[in-house]
Give the backbone structure.
Amino acid sequence: MRSKWRILHPATMFLLLTLAVVFLSWIFDIYGLNVIHPQTGENIHVQSLLSEEGVRWVLRNVITNFTGYAPLGMVIIAMFGIGVAEHSGFINACIRSRRMGKQDTNKVILLVIVAGVLSNLVGDAGYIILLPLAAALFYTVGLHPIAGIIVAYVSVACGYSANLIVSTIDPLLANTTQAAAVSTIYANSSTGPLSNYYFMVASSFLITAVIYFVTKKNLIPSLGRYEGDTHVESYTPLFRREKKALTLALIIGAAYFLIILWLTFSSWGVLRGVTGGLVRSPFITGILFIISFGIGLMGMFYGFASGRYRSDSEVVDGLVHPMRLLGIYLVIAFFASQMFAFLEYSNLDKCVAVLGANMLSSLQIHSLWILVLFILFVAFINLFMASAMTKWSFMAFIFIPVFAEMGISPDFTQCAYRIGDSATNAITPFLFYMPLVLTFMQEYDKRSSYVSLLKYTWRYSLLVLVSWILLFVAWYLLNIPLGL
């Protein structure tokens, strides 16, 4: 029985999870589970998907659940650019331009980890763009390509809150934190995007070190050598025409990204928001398309300059190139989208989260240990409610006022929340990008499933969580400022 579960297709897993949500919504609706929303005072109750209204909702929304699935359009747009770059040979030429061997494995591992941790600068683009590139990089230095996918994935997921520069999530969290603190003794204090900056910079180095350690000591020895077929070509030196084509493509790419930066940060600033900031600006909301178009543009110029492309139809072939992989993704995403939509309709996640939050906030213990318990609670809730802003939009209004009465500042509460919210991202099946991760893994091993992914990622999440809590405890006891 155990072996059968191990080979379940990801689509089957999401179907079973969907059925579990349906069953639990029916049970908890019978028992009348309900909670009060801490901000609005709204009575939230579990809605059964097996009731008459629930069945009608399912039939009305089964198509829009899929077409409205948040990552779907993002993945397709990103894969267009990556498809052209790969089909034209541009990505392979970039790898071949610098001969890498087994002696470069440590550099490649560290490069992927750092890129993953810093990728939250551009939102969720790291999940889509970095994973296939990491697989190719790992293969070229003799490592298992699935190891590259896993390392990139845990770096993006577990390092979601940590960065050396202010990321897109910082101002969003800070705005909610400030709103929740209005009725507390900290109403006059200002919680801004830099309120956790010092701590998150230190966290970036910590998470990088932890992921590197687990990768070297466990992941790479466990996966061993890759024996399957791969589309990544073995190393051969670049020919003169390929070198010229690569140079031209990189110049075009550099010019393109300089133009984007000028359009964003110049006095004209057409890509900035209406208020002049970057939060919810065209630059941030369109960053995935900007990156994908830039990659595809370099791939197209490389293809024509190298002789790989001679007409526009061959460029279109490049756009079609990733469709086989996307076909698998679309099947998995269909079942995943229904599961996410069913969970949101039923209110199961919100009810469980609010009930747990109310229980935790009623405890009377030392402020440091209440914060540690809060981190563990958020890490648990994150296993089935992965959206950082959705959780914080109601958790902030429960915990910030209660913790303020204990003398805990909103900045520390927000910082503790970010630790729990990031650490278990790599192991939750409810992460929006889980279908894509499993799709990339199936490209190299058809037996890949959520269970096989969990087999390698749980160590990352556990060690990141423990080490991050220890850093937080030390920071608290030493009374070091969290940020600006």
